Amino acid sequence: MELRFETRRSDSPWVDTVWTCTSEQVTTMTSVAGVRCGLVFWEQAGQAYAGITGPETRTGTAPVPVGATFTGIEFAVGISLRAVPTSALVDGGIGLPDTTRRTFRLDGARWETPGPDDAEALVESLVRAGIVVRDRLVAEVLRGHRPAVSGRTVERRFRAATGLTRGAVRQIERARTAAQLLAVGDPAADVVAKLDYFDEPHLARALRSYVGRTVRQLREGAGGAIALDLGPDQRLTS
User: Fold this and answer.
1) Pick from 33, 101, 103, 182: CA 20 to 30 A from residue 199's CA?
2) Does the structure show a pLDDT above 50 at 233?
C-alpha cells in the first residue's frame, strides 16, 4: 500500500509549492496541519474532480480515493480567493462543480485544468482576473516589516487573509519543519535548539497536535500514510 508525494517549490510570489500524489490501495491517511489555501485536482476511475483547500489547525485522519492521481497548488501564506472567505475554509474545503478532465469552473468562469508544470500559469491568469488576491499589509508583515497601524489592526487583517492568528501560523509551520528535519535524521535535541522549542517534550506535543507522529515514527517512516512530503527516503509510506 503506497501514497507517493512529490513536492516542488515555486518561484512565483503567489505560489508556495506545487505537489503531486498517487495512491495505491490506501484508503486513509494522516492529515497534517497547514497554513495555506490552495487548489487541488484529481482523477479517479476516469472521473475528474477539483476543489479549494483551506488551512488546517490540527492533525487528523482523512479519506484517500483509491487509485487516484492528484495535482495540488498551495498558495503563499496570505494569498486568498476573492469569492471564498478564508475563514470559511479553515479545517475544511469546497468542491468545485462541473469539472471535466480538461476544465474546471471557479468564480463564474471556466479554466483549463493544470498539470504540475502549468500551475503558475494558471495562478497568474487567476491573479489577472482578480480571482486570486492578497492583502498588501499582510504581505508586508510576512516580510518582517512593521506597518504604521495598530497591532489589533494587523491581527484582524492577518486573520481575515489567512484564517489564522500569526501565532498559529508560526506554531504550525514550525512543527511541519521539525517533522521534515526529524524524518531526514536530525537528532531531536538539534531540532529543539534550531527551532526554539523549550525542550523535547514541547517538541513531542507539537508533533502530536499538528503532525500526528512521534519522533520515533518520523525517524522510522512508520505510522501509515501521511499528507506531508518527508523527503526522498520517505515518500513511500505503508
Assistant:
1) 33
2) no
- For 49, half-sphere exposure in the C-beta direction (CA atoms, 13 angstrom radius) is 15
Question: For residue 223, is it left (φ>0), alpha (ψ between -120 and 50) or beta?
Answer: left
Mean pLDDT of all residues in 107-124: 96
CA distances from 18 to 120, 199, 209, 216 (A): 9, 33, 25, 28
- pLDDT tens digits for 157-200? 999 999 999 999 999 999 999 999 999 999 999 999 999 999 99
Long-range contact list for 111-116, CB < 8 A, 24+ apart? 113/41, 113/48, 113/50, 114/41, 114/71, 114/73, 115/71, 116/8, 116/18, 116/20, 116/71
Amino acid at 74: E
CB 108 within 8 A of CB 84: no
